Amino acid sequence: MLDRAARIFFQLLAGSRTLKRLGSRYGMRRPESFARRFIAGEGVQEAIDVARELEARRLHLTLDLLGESVTNLEAAEAATRQYLAVVDAVVQSGIERNLSLKLTQLGIDVDKASAVDNLRKILERAEPAGFFVRIDMENSPYTDVTLEIFETLWTHGHRQMGVVLQSALCRSEADLARMNALGASVRLVKGAYKEPKSIAYQNKADVDAAYERMLKTLLTSGHSPAIATHDSRMIDVARRWAHERHVARDSFEFQMLYGIRRDLQTSLVNEGYRVRVYVPFGREWFPYFMRRLGERPANVSFVIRGVLGEQR
Ligand SMILES: Cc1cc2nc3c(=O)[nH]c(=O)nc-3n(C[C@H](O)[C@H](O)[C@H](O)COP(=O)(O)OP(=O)(O)OC[C@H]3O[C@@H](n4cnc5c(N)ncnc54)[C@H](O)[C@@H]3O)c2cc1C
Q: 3-state class of 254 per DSSP?
């Protein structure tokens, strides 16, 4: 209940311009500023520096240029150009070639065909260079269109791509069967958005139970599955299930967000599991940051301490 209330509260705050202004002023300006715990920085070079630190700790990574919900084609094209520049910068840097992106950033709200074109441009630059590109899953109005675009590009031969499914949505188990039949790589998450009860589980226990069922299906019938969670209970279920079913440790991976459960990331690597860290960066970091606060209100006191520290 508290969990749900916090999520709604932070989703409302994410729309506040005043907070956004304050956040931009204090959140990112120094390496120790509070938003830096979850966001690598505003520029690609900062993200590459973080990626190098992660690789030194034997972690894998995926870079996410933050941005979502663009409202005109120019902004979608600008985001596409930025992604192309990220591809080039990553190639030059020599770090692992793996990206995550959102369709609303590429203009899906403005014009579907243009958004598909934008995504295709990114894939055409990234795939020959050996990148893997994961399409993040946004809130439920985008579930159908995201899966549909993914399937279309997949059948046109774009195979270095994957999708995300959210256990919070009641439909996701059927979507998982569909993606497994296609042969696509799925990242399984609980879901970061508040969704109506007509289509989504409202209790954490139900979301977790669906997550557990889905992770078992993924481990036995999925294709390069990614178990994306910081929940040590879910991680234990995955390890036990993989062990019992003789699923090789290098045939799946755990994924976590930058700055969250670094201890768990390291201990899994030490046990021989593959762990990928999602590294967000860019100037549009505010909505992402607010979703992370909403997931764990304890983070708020950390932020308040950071802001007070900054103002001294
Ligand atoms: C790699 C990755 C990619 C993702 N991509 C998407 C996506 O495309 N679409 C989408 O809807 N969601 C995405 N998410 C977010 C996801 O849906 C959840 O909102 C988020 O992972 C929190 O859920 P949890 O599984 O960690 O479990 P919870 O049950 O929420 O948390 C379990 C434990 O993890 C720790 N924890 C969780 N969140 C935080 C936090 N913010 N700060 C500090 N500690 C925390 C706490 O110890 C908590 O007790 C992604 C998550 C990851 C890890």
A: strand
Q: Is 299 in the pocket of ligand 1 (CB under 6 A)?
A: yes
CA distance 65 to 199: 29
Ligand 1 in reach of 137 Cβ (< 6 A): yes
Catalytic residue positions, numbered: 136, 187
- Smallest CA separation from ligand 1 atom 41, residue: 292
Distance from residue 230's CA to the centre of ligand 1 (Å): 6
165: nearest Cα among 194, 198, 140: 140
Helix (H, G, I), strand (E, B) or coil at 27: coil
Asked whether 115 and 103 are in contact (CB, 8 A), the reply is: yes
Distance CA 156, CA 78 (A): 25
pLDDT per residue over 183-226, tens digit each?
999 999 999 999 999 999 999 999 999 999 999 999 999 999 99
Closest ligand 1 atom to the C-alpha of 257? 53
**CA distances for 37 relative to 13, 180, 230, 257, 279, angstroms:** 19, 35, 16, 10, 11
CA neighbor of 253 nearest in space, from 283, 278, 285, 287: 278
Kindly give the pairing relationship between strand 275-281 and strand 185-189.
unpaired
E strands within 113-175? 132-135, 161-166
Which pTM value belongs to this model? 0.92
Report residue 46 as tokens. Answer: 């900062």
